Amino acid sequence: PSVVRIxxxxxxxxxxxxxxxxxxxxxxxGIWVAKQVDQELQNILAHFPPVSAPLTEEEKxxxxxxxxxxxxxxxxxxxxxxxxxxxxxxxETEKAQ
Length: 97
Known about the structure:
- 68% of the residues lie in helices and 6% in strands.
- The protein is mainly alpha-helical.
- It has one domain (3-96).
- A two-stranded antiparallel ribbon has the order 1-2.
- Helix 2 (28-46) packs across helix 3 and helix 2 (28-46) packs antiparallel against helix 4.
- The longest helix is centred in the last third of the chain and has 23 residues, at 74-96.
- It is elongated.
- The two termini are 26 Å apart.
């Protein structure tokens, strides 16, 4: 996917605000999701399953990252939505623009 497509996806999900030809800012939701992704990644690394051959740290990291990216979005956004709801997300995005 192109950078523009990913940026638009992140904006649609309320994770970033982008000024036209300007700076890009993480929203509160974006910061929350980034922290949740890191937390899940660290959890997977801490409980990495044994495999038939030894892995380097880089191979373990890449496998854990792939596992993290395969998790459903609700793992990362569910608690935020429960605490703040979609209305809070929309209000923040509108306020930032």
